[in-house]
Write a structure and sequence with these properties.
The chain is of the alpha+beta class and about 260 residues long. The protein is about 25% helix and about 35% strand. It is built from 7 helices and 12 strands. The strands form 2 sheets. A 6-stranded mixed sheet has the order 3-4-2-1-12-11. The protein is globular.
């Protein structure tokens, strides 16, 4: 007989992917249509996306299959009725940032600017969700941290402050995205300061290698959680995923 506790729990499927603005590694090919097909095939409840193109005047004129709507709307299509976008990097031809696609109502969202200094513009998109069959709100934070370690440490501290201020201690919380944390410093900080655990470490004993996509050696992408129980974790390293971006996507199933 199936475990009664498991049967009564609400299961959520999570997906995180750095979309690389719709291009393959080294910007060789525009892959947004193929990426949409792959994301649809996974049919996750929540999709955390980084480097999502909101607008780019030059590319829209250069590529005939460039969608008219922002990439997050194009990727949401008819599968995800709710989506939120946080604009991080702004330039003459357009902007890009983080996005969350959700099959559940998004009650509120806010993009937090965590840029430190210099040319890097970074943000954390915090969404509050209403998940059916649960008695409490679910919090989801999509992040993309800086390349410099000193910047990342400050951004991790800001993330912990954000969680402490805006996420109730008892609420289910998921934090996913591109942490650029190749030295694996985030695990301890987030565990000690925010009570977060990482799905792949808990289920497989180590964080997943996700970069570069064709031959991953660095563990840059993560799915952290609090007040939930991970059930499965998958690194989407086979085709078509290996050619859709410069990062490997990660998938996980969790129980509330």
């Amino acid at each position: 007989m199936p475990d009664q506790d498991i049967a009564e729990q609400k299961l959520l499927k999570l997906l995180t992917v750095n979309t690389h603005k719709g291009f393959s590694a080294f910007n060789r090919r525009f892959m947004l249509h193929e990426l949409r097909d792959a994301v649809r095939e996974e049919s996750a409840d929540l999709v955390f996306m980084q480097e999502v193109q909101g607008r780019h005047a030059g590319h829209s004129a250069r590529y005939k299959d460039w969608p008219e709507q922002p990439h997050y709307e194009f990727l949401a299509d008819s599968i995800w009725s709710e989506y939120a976008y946080g604009r991080n990097a702004v330039y003459d031809e357009g902007h890009h940032g983080n996005a969350l696609l959700s099959k559940f109502p998004i009650l509120s969202y806010k993009n937090h600017d965590v840029s430190i200094w210099g040319p890097e513009q970074r943000g954390m998109l915090h969404c509050v969700l209403q998940v059916p069959e649960t008695q409490q709100e679910v919090h989801a934070i999509c992040v993309h941290l800086g390349l410099a370690e000193a910047h990342r440490r400050k951004q991790l501290m800001r993330l912990c402050e954000l969680i402490g201020k805006h996420v109730p201690d008892h609420a289910p919380l998921f934090v996913a995205g591109d942490f650029n944390d190749w030295r694996l410093r985030a695990h301890e900080i987030l565990r000690e300061r925010a009570g977060l655990k990482e799905v792949f470490i808990e289920l497989q004993g180590r964080s997943a290698r996700t970069f570069p996509a064709r031959m991953p050696v660095l563990s840059l992408d993560r799915i952290y959680y609090r007040n939930a129980k991970p059930r499965t974790s998958r690194r989407l390293s086979k085709k078509p995923w290996s050619s859709l971006s410069d990062h490997i996507a990660l998938s996980a199933e969790v129980a509330l």
